[in-house]
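The step that takes the researchers longest sounds almost clerical: writing a folded protein down as plain text. The outcome of that step, for a single protein, is printed below.
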Amino acid sequence: MTPAEEWLARVTAALTIVLVAAATPAGAQTSPYLPLDDTRYPLLEHLIARGDIRDPSPMIRPFRRGEIAAVLAAADTAPDRGTGPMIHLLRTELTDDAGWHWRLEARAGGTAYTQKRRDLLHLGGPGGWNPYGDVLLEAVAGPLVAVTRPAVEPRLIGDPDWPNTSQQNVTGRLIEGYLSAQSRIGVLTYGQLDWNWGPVGVPGIPLSSYGYQRQGLTMDLHVHPIRLTALYTTLQREQDSLGQLVNRYYFAHRLEAELSQRFRLALWEGIILQGVGQGFDFAYANPLAPSIVTNAFGISSAPSNTMIGADVDWRLSRRAHFQAQLALDDFWFNDRKSKQDRWAFTLMGFGALGNTLGWRAFYTQVSSLAFRTFFPEENFTDAGVGIGRNFVDQDRASLYLTVPLTIHWLVTPELTFQRQGQGRINDPYPVLGPDSTQLTPMLFIGVVERTYRIAVNVSGRLGPLDLSADAGFHHVSNDQNDPGVTANRFVGRIQATFAWRRAGRLH
């Protein structure tokens, strides 16, 4: 198939799915996604963690506004008790008009920070302050949703995780920009928005919002008790050792089964496909073909790297919930001196305390060689930034208490301990011969940095004001993996914006 024929086949297939979805009567209200940077998310996650409302999309974020409005409506039975006033307020704010409508929102404000990088546990870029502004335009027409939200964000200049290093004055980005066709059994979305596949509060292993750009096509089919989710995206091209440009693609597939009202199990895979002149390959795009079997050990000889994993969601009781995400990048039964195991996992628990408080705790670990290979083009990165996790050779334990402060604000104290080895996601993969006697440690290469963090987060929305703030004190030993160096530092970030909003009917 020529590139032109291949492109035509992809477009034809996508349009066919869109038309079928658009022609199917929607069983639930068509609605845009609630973006992950919405300041009401912490309140919603607090209610979900407590068991006060049902999670409409366990282990996958974001959810659509119609989904969360429906579960809020189901729980809005006692607005004067416990978290009832908060549930009622969020239901009022997040319930959209039915039918054809539009919404316009312009926000302006500023951001102050002690470092450029958003991950406060890893230093990156100088502190300072910058203005911020974005404009949101969305429209809902029958089963179709169109959303665009460009932003001007000068803070990005100097952020080591921002891929555009040429801008020196003002830079902008597209936070959201997508077209979505929604039906009773599924959603097909093309464009850009932030995703996180994994427990809340920690970047998902196969896919997260850590990186800034993620254009692609997502498919989400849900026929109870089965849910099938897939993402297809192109990654930035890279040069190989011969200086040739390498095309790179990422495919992620996830199959979930609700085995009981309390227990869900999902199997997933993430696939990097790369090569000079490599095109989109439908063998890897098939969400019902386990690539580790059908391609890696099967028919395809294209250079690729597959990571497999599982998600567990188990509601032990109304006040206690357990989640786990496990990933296996490689496991070698033999020849263990030339190739080594690579893994990552997260264990999380959360629940309710008293009438209004909540708690969340997790432990996560990423092995020293995870997400990278002998061929850098097959690393699980895009422009050098992790597609899911951005840091390897580490573990972290965190404990959070969630405390509502009136019905508009949530205060979250945090205790965290992190260990970070000297392994990095973009380091060359070590080459070890069969006679080598020295193996790379599978966890904690070299000097280990230890960070003790005590912090508090405040977030919420009141009228036109959106506020998100995170302030913490870090005690760090072996700072920046330098033996014997101790550092005590304040780290923080605050963003405040004021919004102008309008909405109306489409005719």
